Amino acid sequence: MKKMTLEICSGTTCYMLGANNLLNIENEMPSELRGLAEVRALPCMGLCNDKELSGAPYVKLNGKVIEKATPEKIYDAMRALIEE
Ligand code: FES
Fold first, then answer.
1. pLDDT in tens, 29-45
2. Alpha-carbon distances of 12 from 25, 42, 43, 62, 80, rounded to whole Å
3. Does the beta carbon of 44 sit less than 6 angstroms from any atom of ligand 1?
4. Ligand 1, residues 7, 8, 13: which to mutate, most atoms within 8 A of Cβ?
5. Is the CB of 8 under 6 A from ligand 1?
6. pLDDT over 70 percentage in the chain
7. Which of 17, 44, 54, 59 to mutate to test the pocket of ligand 1 (most atoms within 8 A of CB)?
8. Domains of the chain by range and CATH?
């Protein structure tokens, strides 16, 4: 299976609203998910200014935006991709 791409915004807004807790996610993943994603921290992705979206921190998994990202939301999204 091709590695997923997990991009974590580390811009100021996202960082202050929780992305700081996500930057180490690779080491905290449940064992069945560990190693399946290439994790990158990115500067502001510009999403924090988009009024259509509901809130930082923002993460992209294979290009798809996850709003108000938490580890559990990210794990669920990864599991959904595995099942596709
Ligand atoms: S700081 Fe994360 S999208 Fe702007």
1. 999 999 999 999 999 99
2. 18, 11, 8, 22, 29
3. yes
4. 13
5. no
6. 100
7. 44
8. 4-83 (3.40.30.10)
